[in-house]
C-alpha cells in the first residue's frame, strides 16, 4: 500500500527548517505573485525605470516577507542576490559539502553555482 502525502506534509516530514524556508511553495498559486518587466529592445528608455522600480518592489516585499530581507527562489534570481538569499544560510554548509563530494571539479559552475566550501 502506498501512502500519498500533500506537499505541505512532505515538507513537514523533512524538518522545520526545510518546511519554513520556502513555505510559499505550499500556498495556492493564486496567492503567489511574480512580477516581470519585459521590453523588446535593450536600451529602451523604459529599461532603467523598470529595473529601478523592480528592485525597489523586491526590497519592499522582502522587508515584509518574514525572512528579514530578500529571499529568492533560484529560478527567479536576477544574479545580484547573495548565495544566502538564494539557498538560505542554514543550508549552505550542507549544500557545499554535497557539491564538494559530487562535483569537485566544478562542472556545474554556472547560474548561481554552489561553492565547494562554506563559509
Short description:
The chain is mostly helical. The protein has helices spanning 7-14, 16-21, 45-63, 83-87, 92-102.
Number of strands: 0
Which percent range fits the helix content? 40-55%
Q: Specify the biggest β-sheet.
A: none
Beta content comes to under 5%
Number of helices: 5
Low-confidence parts: 13-20, 27-31
The string of secondary-structure elements, in order, is HHHHH
- End-to-end gap: 44 Å
Shape: flat
Write the layout of secondary structure elements.
Layout: H1 7-14, H2 16-21, H3 45-63, H4 83-87, H5 92-102
Structure description:
The chain has 119 residues and is an all-alpha fold. It has a domain at 1-30. 41% of the residues lie in helices and 0% in strands. It contains 5 helices and no strands. It has helices at 7-14, 16-21, 45-63, 83-87, 92-102. The longest helix is centred in the middle third of the chain and has 19 residues, at 45-63. The N and C termini lie far apart (44 Å). Mean pLDDT is 76; it is low at 13-20 and 27-31.
Q: What characteristics describe this protein?
A:
mainly alpha, 119 residues, 41% helix, flat
Amino acid at each position: 500500500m502506498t501512502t500519498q502525502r500533500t506537499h505541505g506534509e512532505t515538507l513537514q516530514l523533512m524538518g522545520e527548517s526545510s518546511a519554513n524556508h520556502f513555505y510559499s511553495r505550499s500556498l495556492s498559486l493564486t496567492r503567489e505573485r511574480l512580477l516581470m518587466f519585459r521590453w523588446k529592445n535593450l536600451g529602451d528608455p523604459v529599461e532603467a525605470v523598470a529595473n529601478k522600480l523592480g528592485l525597489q518592489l523586491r526590497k519592499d516585499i522582502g522587508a515584509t516577507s518574514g525572512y528579514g530581507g530578500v529571499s529568492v527562489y533560484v529560478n527567479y534570481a536576477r544574479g545580484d542576490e547573495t548565495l544566502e538569499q538564494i539557498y538560505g544560510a542554514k543550508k549552505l554548509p550542507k549544500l557545499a559539502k554535497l557539491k564538494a563530494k559530487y562535483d569537485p571539479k566544478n562542472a556545474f559552475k554556472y547560474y548561481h553555482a554552489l561553492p565547494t566550501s562554506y563559509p
